[in-house]
């Protein structure tokens, strides 16, 4: 709520002018019954056709003025809502870019995308409606009552009774049904899940012959949904009939009191007609208002969800430190442990090693042994929860992460290419590169064994690749991602299980090319295969987050049981 | 499905609720007529209020009572018909949904494999909803709308022909205005939705790849691209929102003009004594509401057409040809002799997938199937399980042609672990007991222990009662595979099918559970599909498939000695590593 106001401040003028014009329009609308009253009480009574024509002209004129006011109001409201939401969207996106990995893990991509898109759209609608209508409906309702009072105070007392009763009924029913509709939605989601699972698991379910159970499961959820829908339906079906009866009862009371007042000579017939007309205006506005409140409530909920993310702290800035290219060790781990937020146990614990510039370090272990956790500590994607990580002589705990990451290139697991040309993707990590670009790209691609990929493409480097590299094979994607890391010319290069889709020959050629890079970066290779790391200067063997062996291939074969087991399992023999 | 057929299906679905529907229609008609009659009565009262000392209370009071009674009756009728409409709509949806779901259980795998599951789900959930909302509720809206228009027209004609004609001619202008604006804002909406799509795609991509963005320090440039799209979106949104918000004010303005015209004509005619002031009041009420049903109906009609299309899509599922009927025989527990006799199979006649395959597998033997991607390994499993029927030849189990036995009894003899594990949203317990819901907890735990799944299950927050998300969210691929192996371990049928069953389990764990596998496979006919050749070297028979043919068969040593395709595959596995 506060957040919306904050962004609306930049559109203060529009935010005020919108409602003001809307109220002007409502005022003109409220005048119409008075004009009709004059036509009846003056024009018809005196048989004055010219007066009637003039009054009818006045009605059209009021309509024209009303129309222009509305247009102005719509314009200002649209401008303020679109503009403020655009600002809000920008801050949210900027904030998302600034989160550390822990926060990103916690939020999850789909949550963030929902906040950025559908929540933003709902807020936009809500702000727009609020500016246009929030003041208008109460204004018309109260205005109608006030106008009634100017006609005749006694008769207008009907309004004083009717308006609260109608409000209670309309808002009462809305309040009761709103949470119920949410439950209906939840129930519908369960039906959807039952259907989706039935299809996604069709082979397993049929293999186990569960068709009859599935039908029962679906039907019971479907029954639950319909029961809920009927219940809510019965309540919300009361809204129209009840308000209809109330309004008509009020009209009868109004006409009766009006008749008494006319009989007493206080007012004339036209006044009764005007009072009746004002009564009809109230109901429409009240229902509009109730719907508006629902819409605004939704928008506020969306805005609060957005605000919750914008208010989360960004990654700590860190201090400017001098990274020393010629430090004795490129990377040092000193008793390092990492426990993820909400993680029950340490992902890795008590890891210590030192890597000199130009060293090749292999990291091996089973699924979930902590390999990725270890290398993610080097660029400070996560900060160690115990011990110290030093990169090029600087403790990463309080270093500026931007500066740190400029010195490190990583090939992450999974699909991480972006839509754009091959050139864009390879140059993705290079800031403001110029002149020698093509040479740089070609070198990187050549070392990554990707020359044949580019050659096979019609547009070469300018071939467009889809999101996540959809139009490339797994091995091609990996090689482009490796080229992207190489093009960065970083001091430290990390390959996180990123040659898994390459065939053995390409993998071997890649390793050969990496060994002869000039200048040679400190190279970390994460793998499940002993073959990929056997030539490393130092191999770290992980098991359950603990380092169970360290040394060269030959040393480990004789000293480390886990390593030997992995090596042998890969040569064959299981099952 | 053509329109007529769709309609007949809709009426078919409505039949059980016909009586209710008719009651609702009658009540709706009644409430519309009463609603229109009340302004006339009010007008009558107004005419009896002439001036000071000239108010006929004796005649006014009965009319006022009548209004009260009519209003109460209308309210009651509206409520009852509304409740009935809800009930019919929701019940019909439930019926058609249930029918469609039941039918899906009988559809052949060929249909389900060739249709996106998301699309089928959306038909039985979203389309069913739109069908009821748009069609059934839309129907009542159109019905009462049309009735209101006709009724209003009739009542107005009774009062004065000329004013009625004026209203009838002027009112459609507001509809034209609405149409005109809608047509001209369409292009703006298109631009807006394109920009929204672009925004969503960009945000989606950059948020999913946020870690990579940060790893490469590209935040500033991403922000620049974002700003460009954001500005574009704002520009188009402003236009779309502003122009589309012109509709209401414009129609309101035209209605105001109609109102003024009625007042003008009415007042002038009333001076000549043509109508009374009370009649003019009734007229003004009508003029106010005459335009409303027009605008409503034009909105509903669009929805109505969409609902009809939804209904057609939904019924199309129920019209799909079900799988061939089950055989008569119910198979008991078999020994596990499996025979392929000149089996061939193709999805499309021009592209045979399995060509004339004959194998004879004695009970308890272990058969490995290897070959490059697309060679027909998975198809072979589809045929074994009778997910698909052979297009030539015969597959028999213990001498029974599998097409002659019930599917349920055939499949009860198979235990299957697939590469793509499937877990349902539910507890670990439910998932392991899926094949044998009646198993005891001890049996379940023993099965989990046997495949080394017990350990990680116990580490989960609620052990076996931990609720897994859809698709086993929160578990690693390897853990998911262990759970689906426990599932088969628990039911232990005589024939096993292991399709890349351990592909995502790391080599060490795989090594550890291999003993459990060996025990499980003991004395059971087993079909193993694997990419990692090392996992199958102990099989009794290895079938090497290529392009739907069995090109070689024999034991590991025989095939290596032969120096053919298998030997080549085996060799290429180690070339690079050494």
Average pLDDT of chain A works out at: 88
Number of helices of chain B: 20
Report the principal-axis shape of chain B: elongated
**Global morphology of chain A:** elongated
- The multimeric state of the shown protein is heterodimer
Could you give a short account of the major beta sheet of chain A?
6 strands, mixed
Relevant CATH superfamily of the domain at 1-149 and 298-315 in chain A? ABC transporter type 1, transmembrane domain
User: For the largest beta sheet of chain B, what order do the strands appear in spatially?
Assistant: 8-11-12-5-13-14
Total count of domains of chain B: 3
Provide the CATH superfamily of the largest domain in chain B. P-loop containing nucleotide triphosphate hydrolases
Q: What is the total tally of β strands of chain A? A: 12
In the CATH hierarchy, the third-tier topology of the largest domain in chain B is known as: Rossmann fold
Q: What percentage of amino acids of chain B are in beta strands?
A: 5-15%
**Helical fraction of chain A:** 55-70%
Radius of gyration of chain B: 36 Å
Q: Poorly predicted ranges of chain B (pLDDT <50, ≥5 residues)?
A: none
Main CATH class of the largest domain in chain B: Alpha Beta
CATH class (first level) name of the domain at 1-149 and 298-315 in chain A: Mainly Alpha
The tally of beta strands of chain B, per DSSP, is 14
CATH architecture of the domain at 1-149 and 298-315 in chain A: Up-down Bundle
User: N- to C-terminal separation of chain A?
Assistant: 61 Å
